[in-house]
Known about the structure:
The protein is α+β, with helices and mostly antiparallel strands. It has 3 helices and 2 strands. Helix 2 crosses helix 3.
Amino acid sequence: xxxxxxxxxxxxxxxxxxxxxxxxxxxxxxxxxxxxxxxxxxxxxxxxxxxxxxxxxxxxxxxxxxxxxxxxxxxxxxxxx
Length: 81
C-alpha cells in the first residue's frame, strides 16, 4: 500500500553559500535590517531582533539558513510500505 505524498524540501546549499558570501561584506545595520525583513516575510511582527539574532555571526547564520530554504527545491515523495 502506498502512503500519501509527503512534501520534502531539499535545500540548495550552493546558492546559500553565495548569499552568505555576499552578506559577509554588509554592515551590522544592513544585516539587522535584512534579518528583520526576513522575519516580517515569515509573519513575525516584532520591530526588534530576538535575542538569538543579536550578533553578526548569528545574523549571517540566519540569512544563510533562510537562503538555503528559500532557494530549495520542493519535492513530493511517496513512500511504499
